[in-house]
Amino acid sequence: MAAETLMNYDRAKELKDFDDTKAGVKGLIDSGIVNTPKMFIRPAEELAEEQINPCQKNTEVPTIDLSNIQESSRQTADWRDSLNLSVQDSDPDPSEMPAVCRKPAIEYSQYIKNLGETLFELLSEPLGLEPYHLGSMGCTKGFSTVCHYYPACPQPELTLGVKKHADPGLLTLLLQNEISGLQILHEGQWFDVQPIRGGLVVNIGDLLQMISNDKFKSVKHRVLATPIGPRISVGCFFSGHASLLDQPFGPIKELTSEANPPRYKEAVLKEYIAKFVFGALDKKPPIDHYKI
């Protein structure tokens, strides 16, 4: 019976029917479903591995207080709905943003822009570079903001809010509400990242790992589906300015030497990003294509 059901399952049709409703995951919950649709359910072997290697719940992720920094110097679908806003170097055009979130989005974008400039200055210093170095490369020029809405899931053990991945860009600044769900992978185990009121999660991306020649390491992470909700998060992704899309990049020359040669070959930014956008998150990450 199970084999017959699998043979008759048309995933493409289920995805199309879901997209055609325009209601998103929230619409499924509002309709009163009690079982998670098949398109969201993780493969059986992945669920079995989860039973063998359970998540670790009692480890704290380091928290860094930056309040005084200016004085101190696809295999399955994800259980979420999303809104993507792109902010380039110039101020965003208000008319291009949804009216319902226009004012807070513009204000928050300015805060993130200022914080991003400060963080890239701080990250330049442990690399032995001048504070302005990463900024001068275009790291601070433009970012995208992705808002995720995770409704309560009727069968959270069968699906995920976001599958395992490392962010492909330079730096991610994540704001989340009080509902937990974010996990990071460390030494083969998953650890919870508990929300901190007024705090942001800062993730190193693959691109920063590449240009730092492995001085910085990106982190693999995922988001669980939960029986309570909604969980809401706002991620701001610094991935390089749009004007740099056709330019090659690689490890910063000042960070390489005969004793410490480049560990990555040069790549064109738009081709690198395309490997992430058009590839499944659980498959080979884009950074692996450029390792020497």
From TrEMBL:
The keyword Metal-binding applies. The keyword NAD does not apply. PROSITE patterns: FE2OG_OXY. SUPFAM superfamilies: Clavaminate synthase-like. Residues 71-99 are annotated as: Disordered. Transmembrane segments: none annotated. GO terms for molecular function: dioxygenase activity; metal ion binding. Pfam families: 2OG-FeII_Oxy. This is 1-aminocyclopropane-1-carboxylate oxidase 1-like protein. It comes from Corchorus olitorius.
